[in-house]
Amino acid sequence: MKPKHIFIAMQLIAAVLISSNSTAQKLKDNPDLAAAKKAIAASNNIYFQSFAKNDSSIFIDRYAEDCLILVPNAPAMKGHKGALEFFKMAYTKIGLRNGKFITTDVFGDGKEYVTEQGVWQSFNAAGEMFDNGKFLVLWKKTPKGWKMFRDSFSSDNNK
Questions:
Q1: In what order do the strands lie in the sheet with 129-142?
Q2: Are 90 and 77 contacting, i.e. CB atoms less than 8 angstroms apart?
Q3: Is the pTM of this model over 0.85?
């Protein structure tokens, strides 16, 4: 490679590094994204109360009216009706009584949509963890606040 080409390549690499560092800083200082992260954490903190209390209204309120719950090995469950179906299935057939979300990252600008990445754990009535896995949730800002718009998850276990 000619010295001129090496110099140009070095400039391009430096520009990319500075740009990505600047973008990361902007996201870090983004008040919209910070507010979205706070709302997601609050929603996640009460999500599993619905199972502990057998109260589907708490569960359904986490979701946008036009949501899709993308259950593994099954058709998508649509809207609040689908969310109710999912709640009933998880409560009665699976025995879900509590759980935990651990958010590992939130991506986006915080204006209309953000994507949450994380891991989850599910617990039965005896407080025993019976399943765990990972998830991606696309959150949508609605007039009622941040709601789950697309909820996709999978187990880390072979069941």
A1: 77-78, 63-70, 145-155, 129-142, 113-123, 98-108
A2: no
A3: no
Q: How far apart are CA 154 and CA 131, in angstroms?
A: 10
Do the Cβ atoms of 47 and 60 come closer than 8 Å?
no
Q: Which residues contact 81 (CB under 8 A, 6 or more apart)?
A: none
The pLDDT of residue 141 is 98
| Cα angle for residues 84, 86, 87 (degrees, 5° grid) | 65
Count of Cβ atoms closer than 10 Å to residue 24 Cβ: 10
Backbone angles phi, psi at 51, to 5 degrees: -80, -40
> Residue ranges per domain, the chain?
30-155
CATH placement of domain 30-155: 3.10.450.50
